[in-house]
Amino acid sequence: GIILRLRPSRSAAAYRQIWTDRGSPLMVNTQDQALALRRHLQARHGDRVLVEFAMRYGQPDIASTVQGMLDRGVDKLVVLPLYPQYSGPTTGSTFDALAADLGRRRWVPQLRFVAQYHDHPAYIEALAQSILAYRKVHGSADKLVFSYHGEPRRCLDLGDPYFCQCHKTTRLVVEHLGLAEDAYLTTFQSRFGKAEWLQPYTDATLKSLPGSGVKSVQVICPGFSADCLETLEEIGVENRDYFLQAGGERYEYIPCLNSDAEHITALAAVLEDNLQGWLEDRRNPDATQARAKALGAAR
Known about the structure:
Elements: H1 2-18, H2 25-45, H3 62-71, E1 76-79, H4 88-103, E2 110-113, H5 121-138, E3 143-149, H6 153-157, H7 162-177, E4 184-189, H8 202-208, E5 216-220, H9 229-245, E6 250-254, H10 261-273, H11 285-294
Parallel strand pairs: 1-2, 3-4, 3-5, 5-6
Helix pairs in contact: 1-9, 2-10, 5-7, 5-10, 8-9
């Protein structure tokens, strides 16, 4: 009923506010990430590494991307969903779609699937550096709000680790930055429908903060690897209005990591962790000996 009738028109209006000359911000940012990551990894490993991207919902889809890589002779596949924190509706859904595609094939490549990287040191470092870089230019604020995409509370009750992983990401970043306990908050955005979702809600929190004396906030969305509708419009525009209308004086959105150099380095580190044993050239005696030594074999 009401969601189907109203949500598409609202989304269309929101997209018009954030559309770029190159197209959808999500698509543009993802393309830039893939290109930067390809250059980074190939500079380190040559043409042994092929980097392509796929969209869970949209084009290029998982099936066509996998087929294209197989057509190019790929026999080892590392899949990195760009969801740092594991969630069934996101990471799990990506795995389901990948498994469904591979299940229709007569032959499948060796597969490694990266389920999460919410606490990877390089990812935490990239987030911390993005906050420091932003504050170096704009100064700090009364509160730093970590806003993650929400999900129904029922997912947590059924054992989904997403809520806990979001809080761990926040904790590791604030420890890295040395922030006081009263200097930050963790909230959850993008809820819809009548069911209870993960709390506290971002919009309700931002509406209430001015009443408790908080006059300036900076909001960052660590669960989004690239800026999109939910960050640029929902956080950058809609929630800004909520905060200012409630009496807030300064509201700033810290952009996603997108294709920043620190982010590309972090994603490369996550991938290289999962490429262990696949990149060594066993035809090279020196490489073979080094690998054997690392594994504890006698020289």
